């Protein structure tokens, strides 16, 4: 299972700019780093960072909700296989918690 992270290296950070959406505390985690992603409503999947992305500043304030609780800002992209492990692909996005 793979994902894209907005801060694997400085040139990626310069493109994604999650700090412009209030997400400035995103740690640098290089390609090959492993993270756990938990859907706010339950399932968890382990992913390996393989790419830079998404361009967070393009979606500042965008909401994803589950059971009336919402998270904002798109800071993480997952492959279809990784996303399908925690949610419905047709939803396109999900509120998640990311941790190591």
UniProtKB/TrEMBL annotation:
Residues 33-96 form the RlpA-like protein double-psi beta-barrel domain. Transmembrane segments: none annotated. This is Septal ring lytic transglycosylase RlpA family protein.
């Amino acid at each position: 299972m793979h994902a894209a992270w907005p801060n694997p290296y400085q040139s990626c950070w310069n493109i994604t700019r999650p700090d412009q959406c209030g997400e400035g505390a995103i740690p640098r985690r290089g390609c090959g780093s492993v993270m756990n992603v938990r859907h706010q409503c339950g399932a968890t999947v382990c992913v390996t960072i393989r790419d830079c992305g998404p361009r967070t500043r393009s979606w500042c304030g965008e909401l994803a909700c589950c059971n009336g609780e919402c998270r904002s800002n798109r800071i993480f992209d997952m492959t279809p296989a990784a996303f399908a492990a925690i949610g419905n692909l047709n939803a396109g996005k999900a509120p998640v918690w990311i941790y190591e």
